[in-house]
Design goal:
By secondary structure, this protein is of the alpha/beta class. The protein is elongated and about 90 Å long.
Amino acid sequence: MLALHSPNTVLFPAVFHAASRCGAAVTTVHPLATEGEFTKQLQDSGARWIVTVSALLDTARTAAQQTGGVAEILVCDRAAGHRSVLDLAACTGPEPSVTLDPAHDLAVLPYSSGTTGTPKGVMLTHRSIATNLAQLAPLVSNGPDDRVLAVLPFFHIYGLTALMNAPLRNGATVVVLPRFDLKQFLATIEQHRITAVYVAPPIVLALAKHPLVADYDLSSLRYLVSAAAPLDAELAAACSRRLGLPPVLQAYGMTELSPGTHCVPLDTPNPPPGAVGKLIPNTEMRLVSLETGEDVGPGESGEILIRGPQVMKGYLGRPAETDAMIDPEGWLHTGDIGRTDGGWLHVVDRVKELIKYKGYQVAPADLEALLLGHDAIADAAVIGVRDEDGNEVPKAFVVRQRGARLSEDEVIAYVAGQVAPYKKVRRVEFLASVPRATTGKILRRELRARGKELDAPMTDAPATPLVPRSHEHGITTLTLDSPHNRNALSTRLVAELHQALAAAAADDATRAVVLTHTGGTFCAGADLSEATSGTAKDGPLGLAKLLRALVALPKPVVARVTGHVRAGGLGLLGACDISAAGPDATFAFTEARLGLAPAVISLPLLPRLDPRAAGRYYLTGEKFNAAEAARIGLVTLAADDVDTGLAPVLDGLRKGSPQGLAESKKLVTAPVLAAFDRDTEALAEQSARLFGSAEAREGMTAFLERRAPAWAR
């Protein structure tokens, strides 16, 4: 087994086929794989040789050292201490004499993308690879007159088959790019008079919408094929119109199928919009009901099952997962949902990606296609998240077009006006970019990590800053950015918030601080995973110190809340001088349900709240909305649009003098600081005693395990 660890280069096919000629199998490695990821693949595959490039040599060396058993690392270019593939051409040894069993011996061991689970080695034999090339040849053929642009990665089965093996098999010219850069991509088409482009949907999106496309001569293109991820029919049509090409052709398959099972033949004049093609020769397909497992009728949707010579041998070292994928009759269960129309296959969505809203099935791809039709939206992805009542609801992650102004409410209203009520997008988060694999597939697992809501267990924080800062026109904005952990007050988040507050206090350009958040939760209070494991650094006293630092900051602090606030998060909110909450904000003192009491957080809250109204919520843990929070004094204002509501507040703070703001804040916060100085230690001791009790441990553990505590009735 040889590990080929390289971006696209002209030597990639030479190394790949040389290894095959010697009887070795090749496991292709993502060039951006981390040392840990590379190590796992080496260990799983048992690779004894690595071929890489000098730029990636450090990663390859470390992975080889951590794995052990790697005989040699070679490079495609030059690097001191390593043999180069370039020098092997001068070898005078005899040609290898190898006997292969094409039906059983492996040609390549790619690893599945991992968009829905742990990457697994997919065993593809010489027969499955060669057969699939023969199956596709009469439908999507190319020859010596074709010039194919290879920008999708060779390490992925799509690039390996469509951009490397198929065109070389037919004598076509392949122009290789190491990565996708739109300007370089367009310039290469113009310069080399490219005739055929195989892409993924994000590139189709760029060709359809990016203004740079108009600066290049793309008239040499004869056809464009998109695969590897769902492509919206309207987006495909917009791309074709702009480039003056026939309809964008689609194909369907997966790594486990070598990869192709369907494609739109090149000579099809007007394929049905959105169709991924017809079944290729020597391949069988069934569509089966998700509920009954029985075959569905024409036009009905069901899971796509495939049987044919291109089906993988199995997952390396994972017989149970192989058996779950391929049934005893040889049908591979793709996990994709499709329907047929006159022999044309339409892929609706992934089984695991369907959103189940109160029993109704919602396909994210449908909503994504709708969102991409909005002029102000550059890209979008949709996943299911849990709401306060435990229902799974659609949440959209949206990338605005450059310079576009678009609010959450506008996105929600846009979708709601075009779909059935159960399909409505109910939450929106704006991103700089949608995370995608190299092939263009949306990395929904990364979005789920961002989008986990109130029912999600708390997990370790990522290495990126948890409190990023920005500054504009006298206002420093601190963003709680640990949505996977519901912005819980972990030791690390508390430390970073202390640092951010200190920096804002020392910054003469800062008139006021805005405290806001990403994700659906402003703050969930103490990090219960730290509390139950004993890893919290300072416990309740640390939380009290943070709240006092907020109150004592010599500059006004404004809370901007668009999501949920729970337990100690209410103390964080109460320690701010001014607060605005949007229509989706909810609040709850959940301590009593966990065997705790809102002791330390009461220090900044009690002087400001209506005691009888607050007492009700302290005792019951009952959820209440922004309007009620304003009525009892928890927030300053409840607004339909938070930013609009805060605009005059921030304008007024910008006009205040530093001295005037600092002295005025002293007057406002004096009662709260007095309470801190008087009661902090006693209340912190009470909280520590409660956190250490058996009842509280049961309550917190039950919450993390998503079950009712022992005392619940």
